[in-house]
Please model this.
Amino acid sequence: MAPMTDPKTWFSPWGWNGPGLPPVLSGLAAELTALREGAAWRAGPWAEVIVARGAGAEAFLDGLVTRPMKGMAVGSLAPALLCDGRGKILTPVEIIRSKAEQFLLVLPPGEIESASAHLDSHHVREEVELGRVDLARLDVMGPQGAAALAAAGVNPAQPLARWQDLPLLVLPNPVGRLARHTLLAPALQSLALALSPGTELSAGPLALPCGEEAWEEIRVWAGWPRWKSDYQPGDLPGEASLEGLVHPQKGCYLGQEVHTRMRRRGHPNRKLVALRLPEGPWHTDTPLLRNGQPAGQLSSLSRFAREGKRAALGWLPWPDAVAALGGEPLAPGPAGTSPQEHVVAAPLATDGGAP
Model:
């Protein structure tokens, strides 16, 4: 798709229909540079949000999600997981405490029905009201993202804000070490225009509109697992390398027994890892080899190389994952299968890795 030149065509509500972003908005090279060195904004589909409010909302959610709700500050965001009684992932969720007795659960597209049913099934006598709302979402990313927000009149340090009489949530939500602020509001078109170059509302420094290809490239380099691409419903957090979203000291929650048992007494049979691959004809269906035998499968792959390496995420059997995470490269494959011998592990964003 050719870059769109008129920013006003980017909205309807955001200028496209369907679950994803346009592939390119401002030119792929420019978007990648903005994400790594400047500022870029990314608008997704309308955010599907469950609202939990009431005196019992904190305790109710604390028994269902993998991060502690007790003591969570108003105006903060915590990525977490909803799991079933066997500890398996139902859906990731971003939890925002918008008021002392109100929480917003921001879900991936298409997950609100199953998540609502799951919460309803565990809502018995708790003093909590559950509802739904759709909010516009804007993610402002890059090392200059906070400055771009400030130039547009948004204080990035004020989580509960207003912009031109619009109630606005402004929440730090980093992707590893890639700075990101997530903005949620009833509408965000005017703010996106104020952030963008070449519009009557814009002010500098500016954030470049970012399409799906640039975001996919940057998240793979960051080692940021993508729901239903790198991990699936039914995976365990320890398999999907999402242990950082499971608080080991919090009180009882659904799935805790399984997570604790795996952490203390065992390990998964396989594990999702971030990888660096030498340049070559890689595809997500290219098998990873160890000692000439299949040892795993790629799930995400960067389009471009840096310093002779491409980034990927993939699944390895536990012994191979341990070896790779310990710094050991995957062993050479049989003749003709090179460059498998140079596959090495890299940091995951869920563990603080860098893009």
Remarks:
- Confidence is low (pLDDT under 50) at residues 1-20, 332-341.
- Residues 269-351 form a domain with the Elongation Factor Tu (Ef-tu); domain 3 fold (CATH 2.40.30).
- Residues 172 and 181 are 5 Å apart (CA to CA).
- The longest helix spans residues 112-122.
